[in-house]
Amino acid sequence: MDILQALIALIGVLVGSFFTILGIWMTNKANLKRFEMQLEHEKETNKVNLTRDRLEELYILSDQYFNALVSHQLPLRMVMKGEISFNDALDLHIEWGKEKNIDYQRLDMIIEMYFKELQEPYNEVLKIRDELNDISEGYKEQYKNGDYDGKKWLLLFQPKLEQLAQKTENFRNKLTELIKNI
Known about the structure:
The protein has 182 residues and is mainly alpha-helical. The protein has helices at 2-80, 86-99, 104-114, 119-144, 151-180.
């Protein structure tokens, strides 16, 4: 009889141990699943925060850059209108350049690495910038040769300056849309 009782007790211990191990396994499985979900959520949250941070940084950098672009062009417009000399415009460029500390390379890098959808509107701004620089260079050559009349250059320059304002606004609108959609 002692053997039967011992056998029953052993079976009871084995059954109890089995259910204990089964319970621990199920708890661990549930905890692992919860942990994986938590990690995935944190990963997504970090990605959204990184994207938002980059967009906000891009907004500030692009705003500084676009303001510098316009500021750079305004003295040249004044020279073409005969309001100031080319030397005065260069002095203004130098003075404003001391105040501006814009990281153009970071602006380019953020667009290229994170926000390809902004590359086209950004390139449109750069294209107008280059066209304005070409006009300025043409007038500068004429100015060096002693012909200070900038009327014909101003007719080319002013519409491009207005296009620059439109293209920078287009870029800002697309950037703002991206920020709002996060």
